[in-house]
Predict the 3D structure of the following.
Amino acid sequence: MTGLFDRELGQLHAAHLARHRRQVQPAVPPADLAPHDEALRANTYVIDGQTRLSFGSNDYLGLSQHPALLSAAHEAINRYGVGATASPLVCGHSPEHDALERELAERVGLPRALYFYAGYAANVGAVPALVGRGDAVFSDALNHACLIDGIRLSRADLHVVPHADLRALEQALQASTARRKLVVTDAVFSMDGNVADVPALLELCERHDAWLMIDDAHGFGVLGPHAEGTLAHHGIAGIGGPSPAWRGRLDRLIYMATLGKAAGVAGAFVAGEPSMVEWVMQKARTYMFATAAPAMVAAPLRAALRVMADEPQRRLHLQALRQRLREGVQSARLPWTLMPSETAIQPLVIGSNEDALAVMARLDEQGVWVPAIRPPTVPEGTARLRISLSAAHTGEQIDRLLQALARAT
């Protein structure tokens, strides 16, 4: 049997598709950072023993080492310990979790939220809770793997729709005779950085009596007037609730977002109408049968929401960095394509797997870490460097990345 794995592992390596774990730790421990320089050092890591400037993290606002979050975690440890000890439906749901859910719902402007220990668990649990045999799911071709796996587990009929093709989606919805129809999409596509047209999707779902589930993993905390996410970015809902144009029209919306990216900690939540959220709580197996995240995770998430509100300059700085990078790439006339993106995700398409790995290695030699992303995460022939920007980066560090890219050509 081991011979079979050896052969297949060999094929992965030959196709330049093998993945490698690296040991990563902050170059400066968070406890050693002074409050004023936390934002300058949270992006520098020791990777396999070598110090690197990283553009691989999803820590979009630089909150993972923020003093307020560290303090909240320590206080929660002293009060609750380090483990939740059971499922949320047994004895794993603390006052910190309860308050977090209320604050998340308020943040995105929806009536109720349900916290999960991980984003993958939220999607894999929520989709089968919402649909099953005899139902139909309409999934964007570039959706994240956790949405795809949730659909498979639901045993609903799957219709894969070409990426961002509203006409194809409408045709598929019109042709469906399923008892329940669920449209599923990333809100911000994790490898392309483009934003789904959520208002148009909601209009289609209204017209064809379907639900819409959006995964806002990469929009929450980054997009919107107050970093509320993609709903606020589109003027649908945010702090204060739904906008007047959408008030009373969001009963078919299932909103999901993760909290290990811009929020800097871990976990995810599903939000929407109270009865829908209650149903997910009652039926999602990844919620019912898994030990809850500890309170020491929920407490710093509450602190993260406060920092998002109190420090809007982080998001504004992130926008300025994105503009600086895009202008620099255009001026440098690099032989690769920087895809359009108004988010912290800036994909630089290289082409072949081998070439993407080679460019990554040449950057690494210069002390700059940018991960190469290859199939099946992205389509064949579109291997890329996924440049992830953070409010913890400085303008000078963007310039260093641009210089390294120019030398890597």
